[in-house]
Automatic annotation (TrEMBL):
Domain of life from the UniProt record: Archaea
Gene behind the chain: creN7
Assembly notes: Monomer.
Compartment annotation: Chromosome; Cytoplasm
Source organism: Saccharolobus caldissimus
PTM text: Methylated at multiple sites, to varying extents.
MF terms (GO), sorted A to Z: double-stranded DNA binding
Keyword RNA-binding set for record: no
Protein name in UniProt: Chromatin protein Cren7
Family: Belongs to the Cren7 family.
Keyword DNA-binding belongs to the record: yes
Keywords: Chromosome, Cytoplasm, DNA-binding, Methylation
Cited InterPro entries: Cren7_sf, dsDNA-bd_Cren7
General function of this protein: A chromatin protein, binds double-stranded DNA without sequence specificity. Constrains negative DNA supercoils.
Length: 60
DNA sequence: ATAATTGT
DNA sequence: ACAATTAT
């Protein structure tokens, strides 16, 4: 559950725009506020993990 | 234990 | 400040 499904256009920490599937995806929102969705990605170029906002309609 | 991720 | 998550 809560794992990534579809690919997302993300900006890697090195500034490359690419489509990646998040290893994990979840909602990050305070109580009573809208918040955002966050994905955990691994840059295939460097192996570095990073987090990135997901589209609001991304399936969690 | 902390950083980092967004928007209110 | 607050929310969840997890690699570091």
């Amino acid at each position: 559950m809560s794992s990534g499904k579809r690919a997302v256009k993300v900006k890697t920490p090195n500034g490359k725009e690419m489509e990646l599937v998040p290893e994990k995806a979840w909602a990050l929102a305070p109580k009573g506020r809208k918040g955002v969705k966050i994905g955990l990605f691994k840059d295939p170029e460097t192996g570095k993990y990073f987090r990135h906002k997901l589209p609001d309609d991304y399936p969690i």
